[in-house]
Amino acid sequence: MNTGAEPLVDFHTHSHFSDGVLAPAPLVERARxxxxxxxxxxxxxxxxxxxxxxxxxxxxxxxxVPGVELSATWRNQTIHLVGLQIDERHPGLxxxxxxVLARRRARxxxxxxxxxxxxxxxxRELAAAASGSTAPTRLxxxxVLVERGFARDQQEAFxxxxxxxxxxxxxxxxxTFEEAMQVLRxxxxxxVMAHPHRYRASAGQLRELTATFARLGGAALEASxxxxxxxxxxxxxxxxxxxxxxxxxxxDFHDPAVPWNPLGRWxxxxxxxxxxxxxxxxxP
Length: 284
Description:
Helix content is 40%, strand content 15%. The protein is α/β, with parallel strands linked by helices. Strands 1-2-3-4-5-6-7 form a seven-stranded mixed sheet.
């Protein structure tokens, strides 16, 4: 629990409406216990949990920031874009999410068929069991594979059945980076590039990606995250300064059983960086 003078903030969290474990209300309660004063729920490609999270935050005295994490493709790589302070009822956003969720379900179905044909697993049954979430992901299928005894843990499920060069690999087909950015702009969101330090990109490629992000209206990079090394933090801080972007911070929280990314991040940023909180107008 936070015992410091300043409340914690967290602009990147996931509930069971995407690939998190907790429902929004228990997630908010856990955030309250951690001393979080400002919280965004940013489920993958769905806003289904925002109403519950908003009500729980109001009851707990936490400032709530409605959010979403969009999946996009840039040069054959999946890039995640967090939208903060979104208008969740914007027709363009709703239509975009409906299309992406249809793709997610179709992809899981195809993975199930491949597992059945190539490995004699009950792939269709496994995929159906994993598709119950509002925004089903491969992580849901990995959990089912572990539950049914086809993998010791989630990492083995990915390595043996779901990753590239495995029987169940199906490449993702997300909207383009430009499409996703357009949706965020149209819905009035503050656009944040999620975990830029994790992408498989050279220094030059990451600069080019960041330049494109800034040109398309991007506002901030996630510059303070759980597990970020000092070297990564320096790299992202440099990009923020170079492209005059704000800095966001978040845990990317999914599961209370994972100890390395607890809810809430201290607002400790490198010199010269401006926190994304300055762009947010959501009332407490």
